[in-house]
Write a structure and sequence with these properties.
Layout lengths: L9 E2 L8 H7 L5 H8 L3 E10 L4 H7 L5 E10 L2 E11 L15 H5 L6 E2 L3 E5 L2 E10 L2 E9 L1 H5 L1
Antiparallel strand pairs: 1-6, 2-3, 3-4, 4-8, 5-7, 6-7, 7-8
Length: about 160
């Protein structure tokens, strides 16, 4: 798991020191789930937590949301190895009721299969051996924040 508190995020188009093998993962607007299933023979998801929780100050500011939220943290595994850690902030609204019932299904399967859901521009961060990206998905009038951290195992393979 990655400590996601107090990270510095920058718009993707303002970062120029990203290694090419990392950039192909960060700067991609298709479903990460689909891309991982194409890369690995065995893809799985490990839900670490999905519960009502306090969210970080930068997440609150980005979402402009003061109500109750579910924080979902998962590991995405390729061939049994953790390759991505993801943290999603899902405000509890009528727009997100279906998201809150997905269990161990990848969130991306829902977000990318609905053409009415819009995605914001990507922001990037780097911490230890992981590069991260985050963006906001707008579902109806609700914004959902999805942060994904690409573990070195993913692009070192």
């Amino acid at each position: 798991m990655i400590n996601t508190k107090n990270l510095i995020w920058t718009n993707l188009n303002q970062v120029n020191n990203i290694p090419d093998q990392v950039l192909t993962w960060l700067d991609d607007h298709q479903s990460l789930t689909v891309k991982l299933k194409q890369k690995f023979n065995r893809f799985s998801i490990n839900v670490l937590s999905q519960a009502e929780s306090l969210i970080h100050a930068d997440e609150t500011g980005l979402l402009d949301w003061q109500g109750q939220s579910i924080v979902r943290e998962v590991e995405l595994l390729g061939n049994g190895q953790v390759v991505v850690f993801a943290r999603s902030i899902i405000p509890i609204t009528n727009d997100t009721q279906n998201l809150l019932k997905i269990g161990s299904r990848p969130l991306g399967e829902v977000l990318f299969n609905d053409k009415n859901i819009k995605r914001s521009q990507l922001q990037i961060t780097h911490t230890h051996d992981a590069w991260g990206r985050r963006s906001i998905f707008t579902i109806g009038s609700t914004q959902v924040l999805v942060s994904e951290f690409f573990i070195k195992n993913l692009y070192a393979l």
